[in-house]
Amino acid sequence: MKTEKRLTMALSVLVALMMLAVPLASSSNLFVDGGQTNSNGDAPMLSASTGYTVTFQLNADGKSLDQTNVDDDFISKLKTATEEDNDLKGKVTWYLNENSDLCALIIGDAHIQNLIKVLFSSNDSKINKGAAYKLLSWKDADTGMIYDSSVSGSDLIKKDMIFASQWELQSGYVEVPVTVNFDGDVKEYVKAYEVDANGKIAVIVDKYNNDGTLDTTVKGLQNAVETVGDLSTDGYVINATEKLLPVYSNGVVTYGDNKALPTDGKIPSTSSLTVTYTFNDAKYAKLTVHSIAFKDSKDVMLYADKATPYDYSMILAAVQAEIDSDKTIPITLAKNDDDSLKYESDGVSIKTSDGKYLVTGWNEGAALLESTIQTTAVEFTLDAKLNGYNVVFMVNGQYEVKFVEFGKLSEDLCTLDVSGLNHWVWIPFKDVAENIKLGLSEMTGLEGINLKQSDLKGNTLFQTFSFASQSNIDTVEKVAASVSSVDVPSVVFVACFESSANTAYAIFDAGTNGYFGDNENVDRIVVTGKGNTTQTKSASIVKPVSNLVYEDKTVFLGYSGYTNDSKYNLSSIQTFTAMPESYEHIVTFYIDNEVSAKLYYKGALAVDPDDNTVSGDLVAFEYKGNIYEASVANFEKAVEALQPKKDGYNFVQWNDVDGKKVFSIATAADNKITIEAGDGFPKDGIKTDFSVYAQFDAKSYTIKYVNTFEGTQSQTAYVDQNVTLYGKDTFIHEGYTLKGWSTVPGNSGSNYDLGATYSLNGADYKKLAGTDDSKDVVIELYSVWEYNGGSDVPGGNTDGNNDSDNTALYLIAGMLAVIAILAIVGIVLMRKKN
User: Fold this and answer.
1) How many structural domains does the chain have?
2) Taking the model in full, what pTM does it have?
3) Domain residues for 622?
């Protein structure tokens, strides 16, 4: 028995060794396990460190008298819902801005669709305009895209965004035109009313309290008008004991051709309404006060009781008064820090609350500020002069504007990073042709120095400045005193990080109607760097950090003459002028709900009926964060944008939101792009902002099943498609059961069950195809067998000769050897018995 067991074990080991001896089939394919998708095919998008603000305008049109507002309870619900959303958690801060718009501050990567979903889910009828309207959606003010409660997609919030609420008037209601005439200032509005069975509406008129104020519990038409129009019948009466008094009549409501409302307020639903406010000129006089010290230099309107005398001190007290924020005058004046008046040789002067002006008297010195001389005038000028000036600090392509009171100029005012600073230089600002320019033409701000365009050399145009030098400061303040408005910067200080001898300058000009950052006065930025007498050895010029700002519908195409290889020049100042271009409309291209490109154009995109091609006045296109001029030089980038590539897919065409073909793209050898219109192209052309969506067809690949005995079978599959791998009946071999598939022969690779689900994503397809897009991708799967007592053994070469024949010979030889051993053992045993 022991001998039989040993023989059986020996044969089993022999068979196992022979199976392992089957040569492994070689394969040049790089195989990546199916079903493992690339979850981050693109580089991560990082939000700005300061975040982005998404504004939801609750009352976007400004014309509806049916306003909506949200309360703290709704904000609280929004915060809770936001924290329950994995995409938004910890990234969103909700608040109301000064216009009562709902705002979300986003810090981190978040998707706009998730934000809007949370807004709809939290609504719970809190965002409403009464029963007359239903909130349908939010409209992107930039792209015109509409987002409703079924919003889907994954667009990252990459900039500040504004959405306008879109309302639907409900059945049974009408919008009635309302004209508001406030002392001759006429504005148009609409208000929704329910229509009764007789085709009439009921107009509710507000009640007024005994003191003339509105009864806010009624919420009638006048209340809506005064709330939306920010109107008040009160005025500041300078010579009355109670200063805030009703100087205008209560709103009188009429309909049609100045008809009085019936007692029940019911009028035909086709009517129009008028609300009229009239100034009580029998009792009061209007007093208009001008001054450069007022905010935005806007006039202040005051009132005087005609029956009572008034003087200049009363007017001064009025503009100094701090009154209810809803009734406030545009500016208040403050006394000096020690609460005393500052006396000058020409009388009393008072510093404004922002410290920018000294107010000195009335009507060009005709009266002192606190004069008690009575007057019957109704128009006044409050004399004022600058108490300080604005300066601009420019550091490494950034800038900031700071207000400086005379005598308090200091380097510490600059908050920009000046690490490694060597010295400062300065240059005056100047008004040129009514546009504020950075002192580069026909300037004479310094005594003995004529700063002209022809003198664009650093040692002439820019003067070294020391904040420790009183004479330097006196020179600057002399220039500042000549500036007519505090809003206009007086001087510019530029940080230099090399010695004076090695400092070179470059100027970036925003061009016509443009400016940098948030100050419309700053339309040029100076940058400095290390220069060399051999320009190629100079430092590269880096573009300004501050963003360019233009009027709406303007696209920035870059700086004329500037490249990333531009170098500083010690002998002259490099000047680069921005190239803005106006446009009228944008076509936005989407790939998988992400913006991939934009076309900026003027006029309309129209179809030529002869060849069905699209043409138009293309201004520029945007691709991968860069904006390119529409020129032959940028042909390759345009092709990339209009014929996008996607791993594992073939681009087909651009469709509209309903999946209809808008146009397809073709290119020619002569650097021409042909756009062919489809059924989804508007018949009268594209004349507004428009969105198109890429259609791709998945590429096919072959799954080749290899029988390790002999034979193959093939299966065709498509990228990102779930396919079922072949089952147990794919190959049949006597004595063996097919158990599965392996990526390499011998069951030593990645294994898959029979009938398993398999998928190949685009990124993995790209790895298999390499750089050859036309290459047929073939994935080989080898049969995995389990021996069940048959007469043959699977191998890597099953063509009936060579190794198979050798295997049979080895088996026969082994069996003969065993028989010989048994015979010898038998003879030995027989001899022992004898």
Assistant:
1) 7
2) 0.54
3) 585-698
